């Protein structure tokens, strides 16, 4: 059901329980959005002058692309016209040429009951469309520009064919800054009556790197699993190694013999269900922060990069873990005095 998804996101009563917070706190109007004010005011102007062009929203996940076009649609159409005027295709719908020739074409070519105004087609995750489908879409857009507007949404602009790009007004949705995220999180924290420590808040902001959806999901899952949201519970809930875990790992690598270091890390990794890749990312950051002599730092960074490369190609985690321990042991005599 293509229009069905639209109806369910737009008509959920705000007070409903058990909703994921990302939906419960999805901005309803353009004014509710907390970022990209320049984009919002431009869109507002297009709407008020009745000159909405075809749109292309791009940028990383969780930055408000879908919320923005839904808010525009809510402003453009009354509730009762919504389903006949808006077609929303999201990730769960097929992305082949058949969708363009089928549902999209028939929606765009059907005359509107409400004579005035245009219909709106929202194509979420348009970068998943095949080249053929994109070419077919370009022809549909050209043919029905009179009475239909298209909004394409994607993460990667480069995956949209130039012929489509050039027919749309493009807007880049950048990651949200901590300044923008924190007040919004605080609003939700207050509404939901969650206890969050300052370092818990910091951990959420750090781990979500500008993705508001991710920050809300971390907040909700941590508070549901642990009650109080602290640095510890956030990292544990997301399966990310704690700073103290990483400090321990580095300490074992540099100060214990190989077998002890290897076994203790393996034990910690198993106990906490950590991925070696995540450990490696954090260890790498710590290597940058610790005051190693330059030559040693370079050797270590090169070795860590090699391990990461091998891990990415699906090699055995235990072998790569021993390689990581070995990398530190190889330089340990030179660094012990510097690192402690
Ligand atoms: N700019 C924003 N202002 C307020 N909330 C936001 C913003 N961007 C994202 N969110 C929150 O994150 C959720 C996901 O946003 P969404 O618009 O679906 O992001 P995208 O389509 O860019 O992946 C929303 O339901 C909302 O709760
Ligand atoms: Mg989206």
From TrEMBL:
Entry-linked InterPro entries: AAA+_ATPase, ATPase_AAA_core, DNA_pol3_clamp-load_cplx_C, DNA_Rep/Repair_Clamp_Loader, P-loop_NTPase, Rep_factorC_C, RFC_lid
GO function terms (MF aspect): ATP binding; ATP hydrolysis activity; DNA binding; DNA clamp loader activity
SUPFAM superfamilies: P-loop containing nucleoside triphosphate hydrolases, post-AAA+ oligomerization domain-like
A single Gene Ontology CC term: DNA replication factor C complex
Lineage: superkingdom: Eukaryota
Keyword ATP-binding: yes
Alphabetic keyword roster: ATP-binding, DNA replication, Nucleotide-binding, Nucleus
CDD domains: AAA, HLD_clamp_RFC
Location(s), subcellular: Nucleus
Keyword ATP-binding among record annotations: yes
Domain AAA+ ATPase: 51-179
GO biological process assignments: DNA repair; DNA-templated DNA replication
Protein family (similarity comment): Belongs to the activator 1 small subunits family.
Protein's recorded name: Activator 1 subunit 5
Organism: Nothobranchius furzeri
Gene (name only): RFC5
